[in-house]
Amino acid sequence: MVLKLSEVDADDESSFKGLIECEWISYERPYNGLFQIYCPTFGTGPDARQDWMKESTERQLAWHKEDPTSTWLKVVDTESGQVVGGAQWNVYLEDPYPNGVEHTDAVWWPEGEGRKYASMALEQWYAPRGKRMNKAHMQLSICFVHPAHRRRGVGSLLVDWGVWRADELDLEVFIEAAEPGVPLYLKHGFRVIDHHWIDPKVANPSKEWIRLKEKIPPIRWTFMWRPRKGTFLEGQTKVPWENDEAPGEAERPDDRLS
Questions:
Q1: Quick one: CA torsion of 30, 35, 40, 44, rounded to 10 degrees?
Q2: Which one is predicted more confidently, 137 or 242?
Q3: I want to staple 142 with a disulfide (CB 3.0 to 4.6 A). Which of 88, 148, 197, 226 is the partner?
Q4: With the CA atoms of 235, 231, 72 and 195 taken in that order, what torsion angle do they form, in degrees rounded to the nearest 10?
């Protein structure tokens, strides 16, 4: 298998469609709860998954075109022409959160309990960014590899590109990592800062809220960081939690209800 890494042309909609098809398969195996927040499927008919994948493709492409910091990459198996992995890197040459992290409503969910649940999950996920990512940096926002092509170097190609670009720009890098990706990122010079939970709660949850909790259980993710040039000097390198509480294993969101 010969692999080819390239940037995705935002004007090539058919290429982006193949990329997002790979994204869906990758995040379904194994199941990724956060992906279900961003790319849900509603309905049970034979076309439901395909219809919502189409919606997801159009929405992610629109977000990409509107975001000057965004670069999408894809890895293609040149023998089959299949997209076998992809990633989105964001390059922030200045603080992207000068006024703190703005609340995001999951407007792609229908109005009601589901949208409230998804929006609360996003708020919990974004919360640490305002204290730790409030500076120039790069972020690996999305990274996935087709389940049939894992352990073949696809993920390393996607991460290497961002590490090379970060070193060229002399920027530190952040990843909000799902557990399966942590070993890969450690190999590329990233350090674990701490762990967080996404676990939306309300007072007197409805049957629909309880159903959503069962469908999308609490999500544990790992905050990771790579210093400039990958160099960490104990006592000298400024760490991203310097003005934050000491890093460690975070508890699940507490029982304060909203």
A1: 0
A2: 137
A3: 88
A4: -40
